[in-house]
Design a protein that fits this description.
The complex is a heterodimer of chains A (380) and B (70).
Chain A lengths: L18 H4 L12 E10 L3 E14 L2 E16 L11 E17 L4 E11 L4 H13 L12 E14 L3 E13 L4 E5 L5 E6 L3 E14 L4 E12 L5 E13 L2 E13 L7 E16 L2 E12 L16 E14 L2 E14 L16 E13 L1
Antiparallel strand pairs in A: 1-2, 1-18, 2-3, 3-4, 4-5, 5-6, 6-7, 7-10, 8-9, 10-11, 11-12, 12-13, 13-14, 14-15, 15-16, 16-17, 17-18
Chain B lengths: L1 H12 L39 H4 L14
The chains are: A mainly beta (380), B mainly alpha (70).
Amino acid sequence: MNPFPIHTGLRRILLPGLLLALAPDPFLLAAETSALESDLDFLGSGDITLLQAATGAGLAWGDTFLRAGINGGWMGFDYRPVDADIFGSPMRVEESRVGASLSISRKLGERWTGLADAGAYDGFNSYRSAWVSTWYRQFFDGLPGLVEPDPRGLNGSIGLRWEYLPGLGVMQFEAGLASDEIAPGYEEIFDGFGGLLDVAPLRSRLATQVLRVAFENVLTTRIRSRVSIRMNDQAERRARWTATAELNASLAKTWVLRVDGGYSREQFREQGQGSFEGHWFGGALEWQMADSWQLILRGRHYRDSGEIENTLSFSTAAPGLEAEELGIGLRWSSGAHTLQVGAGPYRTRYEPVTFNTTFFANLYRDRTFVAAQLSYRWEF
Amino acid sequence: MAGLVVGALSLSTLSGCVARSPAALARVSQPNMVFSQAGAWSVTSRLSPQIESGRAGVSGAQAAGCTTCR
């Protein structure tokens, strides 16, 4: 018999459906020029290594702009169960992910542009999902109902852009759908004496609807702003609302300040049972120190209240998180070529795990990562 | 949330005062003043949303398992 009673009926444990979030924010006022782009990102601590790469090409052809891209990710981490987990054992976990995206925009008139995009991925999108999945595989190892996880997903959206003040103000509206196949949670099946007979996988497919409206404006001859409001709605949950604001200011001919912030909120299904709230803000100062060289200093702070959970005995939900990131970067730009490198520390601090989440104390422990990025763009 | 919508709409009305000549817009048209999706002109972290659920924006972050327990 399992010595740790697990609340039965977990419906959704692992949602790798971050693709919508990982999709880049759209151009609004920026000119769409033909270009080839490649990005490489690294995030690593002592026991976790994350790599992500993407490359894509955009082609402007008359009134149409087409962009196709491929992306991939790799993660490796040293899985370590808590001492109380008598079924767990340390192991090295490595997973990879591949994806592709295609977007098209076409002028529909002097001020209107139609937008559409689609994407697909195969693999874990997050090391947290892979960590929790590893816990399930070890905890229920040998039971016939345990399934091999195969996370993957599709998404797409359509939208409309309205340039209500040519060159100065744009509004963009998008509506999207995402379907994610997730690594499921499990319901335990007991015999009449309380012994664990088997497990049954729970919901393994999630559908998400997304609505987003964004405004970009040139406020003065030195300030540009962008604000957006996004609603993500998933079955069996209330909608999550996210608002973001960004401001770019040209302080002097060789100095640019970029600030941004955001707020996210999701009310629990039943009133009075809490909510998820998160907020963040950051800034970057860019100095043109020579004709082709820019120095970038940046910092960011993030805080949330912890993911929503209502179980009495077991949960995989992350506790409240506070995180900070600092970075220094260098950008070289000459003619059609731009190269940017950057690196810095990224620190995460979680609130203590509770009895419900004690199995994931090693997942949700404080860490200091090194974050690094390398990006290249060639316009043609 | 209503305040955010009003704020966004208010911001959108401020552009009307700006001169539209290319010379006047030279500063705000520099590549690092534009909200570009190109990584080479962006300073946004692309891996941290794996950890920061709020920024990820997708309801039910990947490990928020028990929101619908029976």
